[in-house]
Amino acid sequence: MGEDEVTERRVFLEVRDPTALVADIDAERPIFVPTRLPVPLGALFMLAIRLESVGRAIELPMRVVGRRLPRGGSRLSAGVLAQLLDRSTPMLALLREVVAGRVVDLEARIQQQQRIPARACFASRAEVLAELHALVDHGEAQVPVDRLVQRGDRLALSLIASGDDATVTTSVLVRSVHTHSGRRTCLVRLLDDDARAALAAALAGGTLKQA
After folding, report:
1. Per-residue pLDDT for 209 more than 50?
2. Is 211 helix (H, G, I), strand (E, B) or coil?
3. Chain-centre distance of CA 200, in angstroms?
4. 96 or 72, which is more confident?
5. What are the Cα distances from residue 108, in Å, to 25, 57, 94, 175?
6. pLDDT tens column, 154-178
7. What pairs with residue 156 in β-bridges?
8. What structural domains does the chain harbor?
9. How large is the C-alpha radius of gyration of the chain?
C-alpha cells in the first residue's frame, strides 16, 4: 500500500490541547479516532488534526489497528484505534513544538513544513519531459493539478504520463492558481536548489524516476 492510498482517505479530528495525543504517540499507544466511516482493519489514512483558531490541519499518516463499536446507542462513541505510520514525519515534530509552547505562528509553520501530495497528469512522456525541462531551466512551469490548492502551498508534485509507469516527484511552491474550461492548473516553482539538482540528474540519466 503506497502513499496514494494514505492520502486518498482522510479523517478529521478536532483537538483543543494536543498534549495527550502527542504523549500517546510517543508512548506508541493506539489513538482513538471517532469516525463513522467504514475504515477496515489495516487500512491507511491521513489523520487531519484541527487545532483551535488554526485554518490548516496538521496531517499524520496512520494505520487502523482496531475498532470501537458504538456504546449505549451513541454513534459518537464509535471509531477506530490507529497508530502512526512514520515517526519521522515533520508534522509530529511540529506537534511536539506546539505542546512545548515554542510555536508562535502555527498557520505559517504548517504551510512551511507540509508537502501536500498532488498529481499532474499528461497525455505523453514528451509533455512530462517538457515541463521538467521548464522547471530545471526556468525554475517554474504551468501544470494541471488533481486537487484543490492555493497560492503559497508546498506540494509533493508527481508528474505522470498517461499509460506510463514512470513518475517524477518533486517539491514545488504554488505561485498562482487558474481555471480554464473547467481544468485546474497552477504555476509552480521549484522549492529549492536541491529539488532543481535532483530533477537535472533525472533528466541527465535519461529516465523518469523519483527526484
Report:
1. no
2. coil
3. 24
4. 96
5. 24, 12, 11, 16
6. 888 888 888 776 678 888 999 999 8
7. 117, 171
8. 3-113 (2.40.10.220), 116-204 (2.40.10.220)
9. 19
